[in-house]
Amino acid sequence: MEKAQAEERMQCVRCLMPFEKRFIGADGECVICREHRKKWLNRDYQKTEQQLIDILNHYKRRNKNKRYDAVVAFSGGKDSVYALYLLKHRYGMRPLAVTGDNGLLTERALKNMKTVVDQLGVDHVIARRDKEELQSLYRAYFQKTKNFCEVCYLTITSALGQAALEHDVPLMVTGFAFKVDSSHFRAARRYCFEDAFAAVVKDSIPEDVYKKYITKDVRASNKFHLVHLFDYINHVESEIYDLLETQLGWDSAGREDKHSDCRFHHMLGYLRRINNDLTSLALMTPAALLRDGQITVEQFRTMLAKEESLFANVEREQIDDFLQYFGVEEEFLTSSLPPVALADPVITEEDFAPLLEARHRNNKSKSELLEMLIAIIRPEVQRDGGDIAIVDYHDHILKVRLLGGCRGCMIGDQVMIRYLEYLVRKYVSDDIILEHAKEPAPL
Ligand SMILES: [Zn+2]
């Protein structure tokens, strides 16, 4: 059995992770590495940083008479700390750090948060949630899907939205670094994340409870502008650690405990490992840093071995804590679950037939084909309370804008955009890169 499995897999020549053969291209690179090359390796950071500065200046002007000009998602983890530091010190913003209490913050994260905001002289709010209510949501979601990060995303999004409204600050900033965290590859689908969440928990959680975490109506009626800082400036892990440790007194715990802000982060790797989900493991830090050229193969091997042993040797106490928190037996962790029933798709494969025909007749430009594609998928995005528009198509880059309830959605930035990119490449042209061009809130 083990041998058969080994034969089906191939090692990517670049990130050295094992993949099913269908994910490896003719050049020996995996899909993730191929995507990374297209999107990140040739990014003109001088240009993108200028774009960032223009955006930030817009909100400095807009909010010059207010106390803050940006709200920043702040978990106490290294990336959000670095994002806050940059906003304050490199770009001269007046940010408000906002923590969505997800119920799983570690003591170290809380301590790090305090140290950093004191050091930076930045105001900080923690949007507290009822602990039992949160646990009931995690349980309901995990028991149907074996995933739990989604609940955390909802606490962050809703806390940011709340702070943005309260202080009249449309600019919301995150420290998500998609270059080295490609978890959207696991999640490619076009269904609204918040609708999917509601569909999963609605049988076990009262509506008035889970709806507190669903903010698409709020986002649809307020012009928030969500910016992921590391879409615009390079994210170099060792530089970030150096700065945080030396300037901010941030405790990295020897740089080994990657996601030190989440109490169950190790369990995430453990779950992937015991379910033999190697593709997911390939998305984690060592492969991501090797792929990005930030570490040598030797450093990669050392790091991978450390991470693997961390996931393999999760303490019994931690597993028990996890099982207790999520209300499941150990067998559940490796069981397979039926898919959750979501609303039927509005569009089907057949709806793309006119587009394919037009492409084969070869009498329409790529721009026209892209317009056709967006018109085909729009009804589905609208059903979910969102909308989509083409902003520009130039040099293989298609810029689209997500509107309505999709506006300001962190998951939309990862999942919806990636799914649209998949459709664009499938139905129009394989060389197109999709970007989410966001609309600034009015002055
Ligand atoms: Zn690879």
Describe what this molecule looks like in 3D.
This protein is an alpha/beta fold and 443 residues long. The chain folds into 3 domains: 2-42 and 264-334, no CATH class; 48-231, HUPs (Rossmann fold, 3-Layer(aba) Sandwich), CATH 3.40.50; 349-436, GMP Synthetase, Chain A, domain 3. Helix content is 51%, strand content 11%. It has helices at residues 2-8, 31-41, 45-62, 78-90, 107-120, 131-145, 149-166, 184-187, 193-201, 207-210, 216-221, 237-248, 265-274, 278-281, 285-291, 297-312, 316-326, 353-361, 366-383, 410-427; strands at residues 9-11, 18-20, 70-73, 95-100, 123-127, 171-174, 225-228, 386-394, 397-404, 433-436. Strands 5-4-3-6-7 form a 5-stranded parallel β-sheet. It is globular. The N and C termini lie far apart (63 Å). The chain binds zinc ion. The site of zinc ion (ZN) has 9 residues, from helix 2.
